[in-house]
Design brief:
Largest sheet: 8 strands, parallel
Strand content: 15-25%
Number of helices: 13
Oligomer: single chain
CATH class of the largest domain: Alpha Beta
Strand order of the largest sheet: 8-7-6-5-4-3-2-9
Number of domains: 2
Distance between the termini: 36 Å
Shape: elongated
Length: 367
């Protein structure tokens, strides 16, 4: 019996691994630090294991993940780069963290005491970082709390305190506040003599490393910039596009004047209009909130306006007077339609668009 044919994908994301390598190099250049590459949320929708493998090959000091499920997937892919858990852990995760030797950031005395108990029971020393809250409000010791508990933390014989980190919530929005955070971080490092006994000091995320310096830091945590998007417009041109979301024309028709397009008939043709249906929708992660917002796609060398509402599986665009045919490739975002533009028109942020690209979109890796 012959093997049945396999169709080309209707919607796919092209992932440029050389662009990722370029952006890693930029992060090193701009920060002057070693890197903790943030690969949480499936490497921002790009695919956790393939992206983590490339980043590991490029010699990152850490891979930053959100939780143990992501850490487990990286280890199951035989990637040996140290794994750092970026947020507080809960009790049900800690035994696995100790057993696997993943690096946790510790936000409270209770969390530290639980890790100490579990590490002692396992007969191991667990490497951990202090999480310091300098203004994010999401986790970590407040500066005064850290000073209060510091001796108790250092006395824990099964915890190896190798780092300290904090996070910048508004490095791309509020320079005055961000500079005050950096000053706070540096004061804490100085007051605990942290440079002498903490191997890693980290504060700067993507927006942070593009616009600020933290004198004691020797580790940076780039995330968004690795995937080719800068929250600082001045730096965007120096980053390479990693993901291009693409689809293809599935149908072309000419609609008469006065004909509605898509749900709700928000768009009515004002003249005979050649309309292409494209095989992508919000079921693939193309934002529904682009409906009626002046969004465009790139097709046959030019931009074409989106007509009507984005549906679950399809969109319609105006191709009047264009030489196009069914099957032609369409870029939803990428080299010609910047992701930041798509996010702004959808009233959201680049992070949400990336991580919203659904599993049914085929990822194709190119190098």
């Amino acid at each position: 019996m012959s093997t049945p044919p396999v169709s080309k994908p209707r919607c796919w994301a092209e992932i440029d691994l050389d662009a990722l390598r370029h952006n890693l190099a930029k992060a090193r250049e701009w920060s002057g630090c070693e890197l903790m590459a943030v690969v949480k949320a499936g490497a921002y929708g790009h695919g956790l294991e393939p992206m983590a493998a490339v980043i590991a090959q490029e010699g990152a000091a850490y891979l930053g993940v959100a939780h143990v499920g992501e850490a487990r997937r990286i280890r199951e892919a035989a990637i040996t780069t140290p794994i750092y858990l970026l947020g507080p852990t809960w009790a049900g995760e800690r035994e696995e963290i100790v057993a696997q030797g993943w690096v946790a950031c510790v936000s409270s005395l209770d969390e530290a005491e639980d890790f100490e108990r579990l590490a002692a029971a396992a007969g191991v020393q667990l490497s951990v970082h202090i999480a310091l809250d300098t203004g994010m409000g999401r986790g970590g010791f407040l500066p005064d709390e850290l000073m209060k508990h510091l001796e108790a933390l250092k006395a824990m014989t099964h915890l190896n305190w190798i780092g300290i980190g904090s996070h910048l919530p508004s490095a791309d929005e509020d320079r005055v506040f961000t500079e005050s955070q950096i000053e706070c971080f540096e004061r804490v490092i100085d007051s605990i003599d942290g440079v002498k006994w903490l191997s890693w000091r980290h504060l700067l995320n993507s927006a942070g490393l593009m616009g600020y310096k933290s004198p004691s830091c020797n580790l940076a945590r780039p995330g968004l910039m690795l995937y080719g998007v800068s929250s600082n417009p001045q730096c965007q041109a120096e980053l390479a596009t990693v993901m291009s979301l693409k689809s293809r024309i599935t149908l072309i028709r000419t609609l008469p004047a006065g004909h509605g397009v898509s749900y709700g008939r928000d768009y009515i043709t004002d003249k005979p209009t050649r309309v292409a249906t494209i095989g992508v929708g919000y079921g693939d992660g193309y934002p529904r909130h682009l409906s009626g917002k002046g969004a465009e796609v790139f097709l046959a060398g030019q931009r074409c306006p989106l007509l009507g509402r984005v549906t679950m599986d399809q969109i319609m665009v105006d191709v009047t007077d264009m030489d196009v045919k069914v099957g032609d490739e369409v870029e939803l975002f990428g080299a010609h339609i910047p992701l930041v533009e798509v996010a702004q028109k959808a009233g959201t942020i680049a992070w949400e668009v990336f991580t919203g690209i659904t599993p049914r979109v085929t990822r194709i890796y190119k190098s």
